Structures are given as C-alpha cells and as structure tokens.
C-alpha cells in the first residue's frame, strides 16, 4: 500500500486493517492526529483524506490505499502559519492543545469551501463532531470565522515569546524577559 | 505589571497550532512495550488466588507484576497532611471497586498485552457491594474499608466539624426554618488525553518518566514511596498535559509502568483506553448536602445547620482535604453568625473520587446558592436583595474564624443585578463592602464582627485543628 502524506509518498508496511491513525502515529511518527477516544467520538484524530475531513481512528489503511492525506504537519511552519493556524493562535483557540489538530484540519476543509463569510451556526454544525474538554468553544468559533474572512495579522517571523511590534515585553516578576 | 491587560501570545500557542507540542503519547523510544492491567470485574470481592504463570509464558510478554512485586504497596497521597495510607497500588487481599488494578503486563504490542491479561487466572469470592453513601454507614458492614464506613481521622473526631455562636438560640429565635437537600453528582473529568505515562530505564540505573501528571513533584513522591527509592533516581518529564481538570493529580499509571520497566528492562508505556478512563479513573465525588437555615421574616439568616456526606469511593485519596475545604465554604459568600456543620467522608465500593476544578467547594457553592434562592422564594424576597443583606462585609468572621478584609460579595452581586437588569431597592443599590453599621449591624451580628484591625486566619490543612 502507498499513501501520500503531506506531499511525501510512503510505502506502508502495517497490516491492511491497521487504522490510519496507527499508521500515521506508530509507523510514520506523524503525531499531530491524537488518539482521544479511538471510536470516532471526539474528533482529535481528524485528518484530510483527498481534502475531506475524516476520522483516522475509524479508517482502515487499506480503505485509503493511494490517497492523499493531510495533517497539521503539512500546514504552515511556526514562522509562516496558514491562515487557519494563525487565526487559532491569535485568537487563543488552543488551550491544552490536544483537540487542536482535529479542529484545525476540519476548519481547513470548511474554510476551503466557504466563500469568505461563515455564520456561527454553519461553524458549529461543521465542527459538531469535535470535542474541546477545556470548553474553549467560543474562541474556536471566533477563530474559524476569522479564518474564513482572512482576518489574521501579517505573519511575523519573531519567536513566540519575543515582544512584538509595540507590545510590551513581559514584566512578570522572575521571568527572564 | 506591564503584562496585566496586555495581549500576550500563549507561550505554547505556536507549538499547538503547528502540531509540534509533544504530549506523552507522542514520545517515541525504541523498544517500548505496552502495558495493560487486569482490573477487578467486581465491585467487591476477596481474592482467593492469583496465577500469572500462563500469562508470563505467552509470546511477546516481558513482565507481569502483582502486589507482591511492589516494594511498598500501600501508600497514601496525603500522608504528609495526616491522612493515613489506605490504598494498595495493586490489590492484594481483596478488591473494593470495579476496575481496581490487580496485575499488570508489559508486552510487545497492545494485543499481546491484552491476551496476557486474559490469561491471568484469578479466583474471587464476591461480596455484596455498598454503593450508596446514605445507607453505607448504617449497614454495619466493615468489609469495604479497614476503617469502617466512615473515615475516622479528623483530629479527635470521625467527621469535620464547624461550631460557631449559639446555634440552638438562633433556631429558637427564628421566624422560619427553611430546609433543603442538594445532591451534586459524580462527574468524570474526561480529558481528551487519557491517563498515560512512558517509563524508560536508563543505563545509569535511574528511571526517566514521561508523565501527563498535573502535579510533578507529587507524582515523583508517590513513585519514590512505592519503589522505596530516593528522588534523585527519578527523572520526571512533564508539564504538557492534554487536559486534566484535577483528575491527573492522581498518579494513575507511572508507578506500575516503573515496576514493569524495571522487571522487563525495557521502556513501558501505558495509555488508558477511553473505556478505562470512563470506568476506572477517579471522578469528582457525589455529595449529599442537607441545609437548615434559621431565618427572620425580614431576611436575616440567624443560623445554619449543615450535614454533608462525601462519597470517597473505595479509598481516602484526597477526600478528607476536599471535605475540609467544603466545610470552610459552607456559608458561601454570606455571613451567618451561628453555625453547626458536620461533614462525613464515607467509603463505598465505587471508583475512588478525587480533585476536580474547585475541589470540595463547587458542591457546597451549588447547595448554598440554590438554598439562598429557596430562602428568598419562601420569604417572598428578591433573591439578590437577600444575598446583599447577608453578604460578607469587611470585619465579618467566617465559620473557621477568618476575618474578611476585602470581600467581593456586594460589588459582584450589584454587578450581576446590573447585567441581568434586575431592579433593586435604594438601600441595596447603595450597599458597599464596608463594615456593618446601623441597620446592617443588628444584635445577632454584633458578636461575630471582628474588632477593627484584627487579622485572624486559621486555615488548618486537611486534618489539623479538629475542632
């Protein structure tokens, strides 16, 4: 079997009924899709298969032989985020981060087929299969709407903890800043 | 203080949105074995015999551990705070909750580990389980805990007590006695990342432990105590938690992985399945809370009697500490001068309960706020005006003798009324947090008011000051 993952072709050695999640995580060491429930209930393992969001934990690898698979590793780099990644980062849509990969991939697909404006109902409907147990849903929905509008700041090349533009450096007592 | 009010990026945000955050399950170490546990299928049973020989002989199995492999099996998470040890790492003579671990296996694959667990032969003698805190103390059975049905170690008492003022006089003086029963239920934390750890034996003889714990030094102490090792032989790697909410204060997997790793001389990982997380990981406790308030027709709460029963599940863990916090907060954001609080930690054959967001306090806050609304309804008062009248004010003294310096009840309640567009009477609109005087200092509140400038704080830990 063969898979193209984030543009790179791989020969797959796992048995055919291995889940795509296990192939990605345990054979290819691509770990952004998470094993949250392994029964299709939480959305943390969501990847794009030929552009469509799918549960990697419920997908036998043989069923997607030859497919194009996209994961968060194939989106943007830290200094060159995709619009969806930037929107999630800027709008604090990731808390513990464990569900974030799944939300990002589902949002990439949703934004790709939207025409620039998404109503909150459309967003919550499209992401209803995803659980954030930190319950940061308001910020997630805000981020998805912003991503659909392209409403993100210019990408900055500076490291995450550096002061940015006119922002003050952190002055928390004891911090190295 | 330039950080306050500034819009700073999350320090871990870029790693989260690029999929680069390394959670425990994302760590890859060559030769890692999978752990699976044999868990009790019964709520309560004696263990007559355990035979692991078949499992040990199976292909791909590298180690099996039971209670006899644990250097120090019974350890308490809060021994340093005076809560004695009661819970074995692996069940020895009996099992007290469905899902309690009895034995664990390390094997080449999850499937091989599961097959080996199936091959462990174990002979149980089932007992009648006790699952209801309201009836547990009355059964007279003592088989479900070595201390009996009620946790007995609150100083000289078998329960947490608060006594203040003259409770009998308050109830004699009351126009009305208003009662309520409140029963917040158990809640599973349900983090998306289930309990997981990876333990790697190092050539130096140390162990490197990748842990999802919320409490690194706590977990280090627990592992060190069970192994009877010095802390400097343990290297904990953590701080990245895929959701915890209190449930990852318990050390669920690290110690058993460590024992298996030492026996197999290979790295061992244990990642709970979602089923294990739901069925066997600790939960927020269910509670039974009864409140009686002695009130006057014009809305003063003269006294409160409270009976609380806290479901510890099968072992004590953090329950005595949670109940103590619960006791401290049983008047809520309000000042009540005469108190009698009795809180019991009761054992059942349910999964042990533990910390969860606002541990011990959310349960009593729910009960108190529902009860305040009930009092207002029965008096025909605006519920916010009742709260403002009885609100904590500067100089007020709580049930456990803490003097209020900056209580926020009044400003918060006024803000809530504003947001909810609830019209208040003029005397309530004008209220502040300042010390009581005039009509707001009636006879029954004079004695509870601390003299100006007095600072008393008696937070007494889990077991101290058992008054």
Beta-strand portion of chain A reads 5-15%
Biggest interface: A-B, 48 and 38 residues
CATH 4th-level superfamily of the largest domain in chain B: Aldehyde oxidase/xanthine dehydrogenase, a/b hammerhead
Average pLDDT taken over every residue of chain A: 90
CATH class of the largest domain in chain A: Alpha Beta
Strand content of chain B: 15-25%
Number of helices of chain B: 13
Strand elements of chain A, count: 5
CATH superfamily of the largest domain in chain A: Beta-grasp domain
The helix content of chain A is 25-40%
Helical region count of chain A?
5
* Separation of the first and last Cα atoms of chain A: 51 Å
What structural class should be given to the helix and strand makeup of chain B? alpha+beta
Domains of chain A, number: 2
The tally of domains of chain B stands at 2
The CATH topology of the largest domain in chain B corresponds to: Aldehyde Oxidoreductase, domain 3
Look at the structure and give the mean pLDDT of chain B.
94
CATH architecture annotation of the largest domain in chain B: Alpha-Beta Complex
Features:
heterodimer; A: alpha+beta; DNA polymerase, domain 1; 2 domains; 5 helices; 5 strands; 11% strand; globular; B: 467 residues; Aldehyde Oxidoreductase, domain 3; Aldehyde Oxidoreductase, domain 4; five-stranded mixed β-sheet; 13 helices; 24% helix; 22% strand
Question: Would you give an account of this structure?
Answer:
The complex is a heterodimer of chains A (177) and B (467). Chain A is globular, with a radius of gyration of 17 Å. Chain A has a 5-stranded mixed β-sheet with strand order 2-1-5-3-4, covered by helices on one side. Chain A contains 5 helices and 5 strands; from the N terminus they run E-E-H-E-E-E-H-H-H-H. By secondary structure, chain A is α+β, with helices and mostly antiparallel strands. The termini of chain A are far apart. Chain B is of the alpha+beta class. Chain B folds into 2 domains: 31-127 and 189-280, Aldehyde Oxidoreductase, domain 3, CATH 3.90.1170; 160-184 and 285-446, Aldehyde Oxidoreductase, domain 4, CATH 3.30.365.10. Chain B contains 13 helices and 17 strands. Chain B has helices at residues 13-17, 53-56, 110-119, 167-173, 216-227, 254-264, 274-280, 319-328, 361-379, 383-389, 409-419, 426-429, 443-446; strands spanning 33-39, 45-51, 61-65, 94-95, 101-107, 121-126, 160-164, 176-182, 187-188, 196-201, 207-211, 234-237, 268-271, 283-284, 287-295, 301-313, 338-347. In chain B, strand 10 and strand 11 (207-211) form a beta hairpin. The longest helix of chain B is centred in the last third of the chain and has 19 residues, at 361-379. At the A-B interface, helix 2 and helix 3 of A face helix 1 of B.
């Amino acid at each position: 079997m063969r898979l193209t993952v984030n543009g790179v072709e791989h020969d797959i050695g796992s048995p055919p009924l291995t889940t795509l999640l296990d192939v990605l995580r345990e054979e290819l060491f691509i770990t952004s899709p998470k094993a949250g429930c392994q029964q299709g209930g939480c959305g943390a393992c969501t990847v794009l298969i030929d552009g469509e969001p799918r549960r990697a934990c419920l997908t036998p690898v043989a069923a997607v032989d030859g497919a194009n698979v996209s994961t968060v590793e194939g989106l943007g780099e830290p200094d060159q985020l995709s619009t969806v990644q930037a929107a999630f980062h800027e709008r604090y849509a990731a808390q513990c981060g464990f569900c974030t990969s799944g939300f990002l991939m589902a949002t990439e697909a949703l934004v790709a087929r939207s025409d620039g404006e998404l109503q909150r109902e459309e967003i919550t409907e499209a992401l209803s299969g995803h659980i954030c147990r930190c319950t940061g849903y308001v910020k997630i929905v805000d981020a998805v709407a912003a991503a659909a509008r392209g409403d993100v700041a210019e990408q900055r090349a500076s490291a995450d903890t550096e002061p940015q533009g006119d922002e003050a450096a952190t002055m928390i007592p004891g911090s190295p800043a | 203080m330039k950080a306050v009010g500034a819009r700073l990026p999350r320090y871990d945000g870029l790693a989260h949105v690029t999929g680069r955050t390394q959670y425990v399950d994302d760590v890859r170490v060559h030769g890692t074995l999978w752990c699976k546990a044999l868990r009790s299928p019964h709520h309560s049973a004696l263990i007559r015999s355990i035979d692991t020989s078949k499992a040990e002989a199976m292909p791909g199995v590298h180690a099996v551990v039971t209670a006899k492999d644990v250097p120090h099996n019974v350890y308490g998470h809060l021994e340093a705070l005076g809560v004695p040890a009661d819970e074995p790492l692996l069940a020895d003579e009996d099992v007290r909750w469905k899902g309690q671990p009895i034995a664990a296996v390390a094997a080449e694959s999850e499937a091989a580990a599961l097959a080996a667990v199936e091959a462990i032969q174990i002979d149980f003698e089932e007992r009648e389980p006790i699952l209801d805190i309201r009836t547990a103390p009355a059964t007279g059975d003592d088989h479900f805990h070595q201390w009996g049905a009620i946790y007995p170690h609150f100083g000289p008492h078998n329960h947490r007590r608060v006594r203040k003022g003259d409770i009998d006089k308050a109830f004699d003086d009351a126009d009305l006695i208003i009662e309520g029963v409140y029963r917040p239920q158990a809640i599973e934390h349900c983090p998306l990342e289930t309990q997981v750890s990876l333990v790697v034996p190092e050539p130096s003889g140390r162990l490197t432990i990748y842990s999802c714990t919320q409490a690194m030094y706590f977990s280090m102490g627990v592992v060190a105590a069970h192994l009877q090792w010095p802390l400097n032989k343990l290297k904990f790697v953590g701080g990245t938690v895929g959701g915890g909410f209190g449930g990852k204060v318990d050390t669920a997997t690290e110690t058993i992985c460590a024992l298996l790793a030492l026996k197999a001389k290979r790295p061992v990982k244990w990642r709970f399945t979602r089923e294990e997380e739901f069925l066997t990981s600790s939960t927020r406790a269910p509670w039974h809370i009864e409140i009686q308030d002695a009130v006057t027709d014009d809305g003063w709460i003269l006294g409160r009697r409270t009976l609380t029963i806290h479901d510890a599940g099968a072992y004590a863990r953090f329950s005595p500490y949670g109940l103590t916090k619960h006791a401290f907060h049983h008047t809520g954001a309000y000042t009540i001068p005469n108190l009698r609080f009795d809180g019991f930690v009761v054992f059942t054959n349910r999964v042990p309960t533990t910390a969860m967001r606002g541990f011990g306090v959310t349960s009593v806050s729910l009960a108190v706020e529902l009860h305040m609304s009930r009092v207002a309804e029965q008096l025909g008062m605006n519920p916010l005006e009742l709260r403002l009248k009885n609100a904590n004010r500067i100089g007020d003294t709580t049930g456990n003798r803490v003097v209020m310096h900056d209580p926020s009840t009044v400003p918060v309640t006024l803000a809530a009324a504003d947001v909810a567009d609830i019209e208040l009477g003029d005397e309530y609109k004008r209220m502040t947090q300042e010390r009581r005087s005039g009509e707001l200092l009636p006879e029954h509140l004079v004695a509870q008011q601390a003299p100006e400038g007095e600072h008393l704080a008696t937070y007494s830990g889990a077991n101290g000051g058992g008054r």
